[in-house]
Design brief:
Strand content: 15-25%
Radius of gyration: 12 Å
Order of helices and strands: EHHEEHEEEH
Strand order of the largest sheet: 2-3-1-6
Number of helices: 4
Largest sheet: 4 strands, antiparallel
Low-confidence stretches: none
Oligomer: single chain
């Protein structure tokens, strides 16, 4: 799929972390920092319910930065879990439709 400005990072949170709002916020900040090394991050969201619960969505200023972050993070391990990266449609992110 073509890169968008929205990076989707799966496997960053465990179910226990997802149940703790403080942990979710800490991981959201960590994700922003890690992704910020690849370009300007505009927002990061971690849904805590629904089909994308626990997936980190990071909105970049441009698709090139999102692609660089996807290449850098995809396949890396975070707390013993292998990260999986993909891209989410920008319109869905803007509408708060996280899938």
């Amino acid at each position: 799929p073509m890169p968008t400005t929205v990076l989707r990072v799966a496997n960053m949170l465990s179910p226990a972390e997802l149940a703790n709002p403080t942990e979710v916020e800490e991981i959201r900040r960590e994700a922003m920092g890690a992704c910020g090394a690849h370009g300007q991050v505009q927002a990061a969201v971690i849904p805590t319910s629904g089909p994308a619960a626990g997936v980190v969505f990071v909105k970049f200023a441009d698709a090139r930065s999102a692609q660089a972050a996807a290449q850098a993070l995809g396949g890396k391990t975070f707390d013993g879990r292998m990260l999986q990266t993909s891209f989410a449609p920008e319109a869905q992110f803007a509408a708060g439709n996280f899938v």
